[in-house]
Amino acid sequence: MKQPYLKTKSQFKSFPVLRSQRGFTLIELIVVILIIGLLLTMASMSVTTSTDKSLESEAKRFASLMKLASDESIMNSQLVRTQINKQQYQFSFGFAGEIESEDKIFRPREISDNIHIDVILEDEEIDFERLEEGEFANIYVLPSGEMTPFTVTFYQDNGAAYQITGDFNSNIEFVGQVESPDS
Fold this sequence. Notes:
It contains one helix and ten strands. It is of the alpha+beta class. It starts with 25 loop residues before the first helix and ends in a 6-residue tail after the last strand. The model has no long low-confidence stretch (mean pLDDT 83).
């Protein structure tokens, strides 16, 4: 009877054992870091751009409304008062001072939480912290076309700021981007 053929350890041929990979190569790590960096850059650019655009559009809206209110005052021979505080701005017409809440153009406008406002009237900065609840800084436009000289700056914490100015003769100008009052 034949004995079954048994191999001993020494009879096995030694083949190189393929080791499973441990970790990543340097090139793989660099590619992953590069991709993450590009994604973060694009994300931060899109966030910054959209917040800057909302700030700029709010400042341009205010400038346009001020020009329109000045024209309305002269054409209708009535006093226009622009009331501003740190949460909103609104327009009132006539000596009774009725707020135009029904008017789609001159309705009260809320200022977004991420937008701050700085107001200077007749070379005097308005401290909104000292104003009582419901109190406003007022810009008056007379039927003769004269106006309270003002500088209004809309700004954000990221340093972006846009400024609007108006002089005694109702010349209202959107100055554009300026240095933030906080810096």
